[in-house]
Fold these 2 entries.
Entry 1:
Amino acid sequence: MPGVIVVYLSTSGNTKAMADAIVEGAISRNVDAKAVNFNEAKMEDIKVADAIAIGSSTFNYRMLPPMEKFLQNLEKANVKGKVGAAFGSYGWSGEAPVLIAEKMRELGMKVLDPVLRIQYQPAEKDLEECKRLGKDIAVKVKKIPEKHGKSTSIEDAGVQEVKMGEGGH
Ligand SMILES: Cc1cc2nc3c(=O)[nH]c(=O)nc-3n(C[C@H](O)[C@H](O)[C@H](O)COP(=O)(O)O)c2cc1C
């Protein structure tokens, strides 16, 4: 089954709530997904993932240095060609997800546009948007040439369903 890893840095839980909703969305489309704090993320998990979603809140117009370091380390994981998505909670300027997406593109990842930013604590409708992103990621990973064997007809039906609504945000 294709796999999505969602890595986040969140100081007060806002970006974490987004990460959990993205996972929920991906799982609802029959794709394996899990959210991990950046300091618990294992390079082996990243190497085998088909898609990597990375989230950080914005501090002083950028992401916090430990997340910058994490992104530097991604170079070693050979993420070229993998699906990428960037997200994060913010207060007023929200640069971090944009910077994450830039870095992902530099590494050769296929990054979903636009990045997903939510101001402060995500409300129910914001979490729905996060779930939508998770579903969109699931659709994209299912289009990656097979390396996990065949997909089931139920999964294919799920892909069709999402395709029709794709581009909704
Ligand atoms: C010291 C400090 C600096 C911040 N700097 C920025 C900033 O430059 N731009 C911005 O959009 N938000 C900024 N914020 C707001 C946070 O990004 C926002 O509170 C966010 O919801 C935190 O999410 P988290 O719980 O996932 O870390 C700042 C917050 C604090 C406490």
Entry 2:
Amino acid sequence: MKVRTSIMQRVPIWDLPTRVFHWLLALSFIGAYVTGDSDRWALVHVTCGYTVLGLIIFRLAWGVVGTRYARFSEFVSGPSPVISYVSGLIRGRPSHYVGHNPAGALAILALLLLGLISAVSGWMVYDDVGGDWLKELHDVPPFWAKWFNVECWTLEGLHEEASSLMLALVFVHIAAVLISCRLHGENLVRSMIDGRKRSEVNQAITTNRPVVALFVLASLIGFWLWSFSDTLRDTEAIEFAISIEDRAKHFVNQMVKLSDSFPYLVINRNEDQF
Ligand code: HEM
């Protein structure tokens, strides 16, 4: 929604579930990305990936039933608002929007789509589901096959490409946020933390929906505990085994020292053995 008048204050715009979603998505995407190449961190990678998937599914639902500025109907628009926003941006005078601006909204939709493709393809690779449907796409006319290099298309490839593209878009997103902060003279990062943006008072949302945010957080903590429960148990078992082994070694060392102090006993013992 475009802002018209000049009597403005910082009022609640982003509800709590939207903010919780945003920062958890940022964390879990980065977590999944940096652990992607390591066997040692595979469980963290997979858990972050499922978290991305769960969060995006939640956000798709919240885009329908959430508060005013979280709804897709509020910020998804046709091409003409995007074009007029971008031309204003080029002239250095972009319109100020209470919710997402039309160009930002496009990037957000692309981030959600790429996150979805990346997480679903990762799940299909990890759980070996989906069969060879991607390979069937290889049966395209030779011209297209050569043009799009379809021989190289695999689920793993799709997973990696979608993740890399998402990372590139995240950088664009962060740069765009920082540029918008400068052009609008407003700290948008702070807005994604405290939920407030500069606007007319009557444009504010009336509820923050904390219970929904709590539900998202609790589900996530529950999922992470469940996901790592076996590993935690294994770790405890390994630590226990190591401590028993250490105690046993310590006991044997003490016995050896003791027997060294009584050569007579040792000699006798050795003689007994023979
Ligand atoms: C992996 C990193 C990130 C991802 C995947 C991501 C994704 C998103 C998404 C999906 C939204 C839409 C929020 C919604 O309506 O639900 C959004 C908005 C936003 N993000 Fe990020 N984000 C990331 C990192 C960051 C960082 C590091 C910052 C701070 C510099 C940031 C600042 C913002 C702001 C200010 C908005 C609101 C933009 C507006 O006013 O229209 N994001 N981000």
